[in-house]
Amino acid sequence: MRILVCGGAxxxxxxxxxxxxxxxxxxxxxxxxxxxxxxxxxxLQRIIGAPVEAHRLDxxxxxxxxxxxxxxxxxxxxxxxxxKAVGESCAQPLxxxxxxxxxxxxxxxxxxxTGVRRLVFSSxxxxxxxxxxxxxxxxxxxSATNPYGRTKLVMEQMIGDLCRxxxxxxxxxxxxxxxxxxxxxxxxxxxxxxxxxxxxxxxxQVAAGRRExxxxxxxxxxxxxxxxxxxxxxxxxxxxxHADALDYLVRRERxxxxxLGTGRGTSVLELVRAFERVSGRRIPCExxxxxxxxxxxxxxxxxxxRRLLGWRARLGVPRMCRDAWHWQSLHPRGYAxxxxxxxxxVAGAGQVASGSARNKRVDATPRPPAGPPPPSVGVRTVAxxxxxxxxxxxxx
Length: 396
Hints:
Helices cover 35% and strands 16% of the residues. It contains 11 helices and 16 strands. Residues 346-396 have low confidence and may be disordered. It has a domain at 2-190 and 234-265 and 299-316 and 338-363 and 380-389: Rossmann fold, CATH 3.40.50. Helix 5 (93-114) runs parallel beside helix 6 (147-165) and helix 9 (268-279) packs across helix 11 (317-330). The chain is globular, with a radius of gyration of 20 Å. The strands form 4 sheets. The protein has a 9-stranded mixed β-sheet, sandwiched between helices. Strands 12-9-14 form a 3-stranded mixed β-sheet. Strands 7-10 form a two-stranded parallel sheet. Its EC number is 5.1.3.2. This is UDP-glucose 4-epimerase. Belongs to the NAD(P)-dependent epimerase/dehydratase family.
């Protein structure tokens, strides 16, 4: 199938592209690169072993989206594009509503206009807010406690309304818990812009010497060690779930909502200790005040995903830490350290931009400074880069 991946240069979107391409699908990336790097794309190309088509485009540009979808037959869309920092959403709520909800409205309209009727949507466990009980099932009350979570909830509701209004429209909303880790090659991973908002990249940056200590937000939660408990999920397991959800939509007609998690909670300090064991690095910690919008304990009941998609998480916390550290140790400054040339995008609809991934042999199994190495994977070197740009529009 030919799949439009919105936010395909981002953390989760890029890993989904790898999985989809490995299954024989053709992926086309759309991204505005506000919180992602264009250097992700030639890194993707090295893993996939083929050119990656990409368009620099803001999702709120409905005309640009419509032109892209109409210009080539697409079988499905995967929607990862969003602003995603809980704390930032509390400080800048209107930016989040404008970008996340506005972009989704434009995307759904463009899909309707061009007859593309399969969508896999990146939702979030933040739609549950402070859960009444854990593990959390999909029928739990929805009460997001921060603007980011509320945008995801509204987006889910819009998609559900569209499915009811248009029986031919099929959608899967995947409620992620806490994605971490990286591709085992170490070529792609999580590269936050500025100060990390999530725990694992913060841990990695402390271990790499970029930050002096880890700030732990809240040490007085009603948990075993006083720190927040979350359901950490390897990003490669998460990426697999998207392919499984798409396969489900091909076979079934319904608006699907499922949790994606391991079903096990891990506290902040437990994750820190696991990371220290894998990396061989000590992580100094400082307990600071809770962040607005954070909850004490949140982990999934993933039974529905197992039953309907045949999916379950396979990779545990040690592997999550190992792959995240492998990525960080190879790229201390994130994609700025990637041995590739960033693709050049030029203004003007339909104009072709050129660039190249450096034609240099990639060792797929370099070792992090400490800890057991990840399993090797084959990476082919490809010296061709293909990209286009379509009516870029500034904005988040």
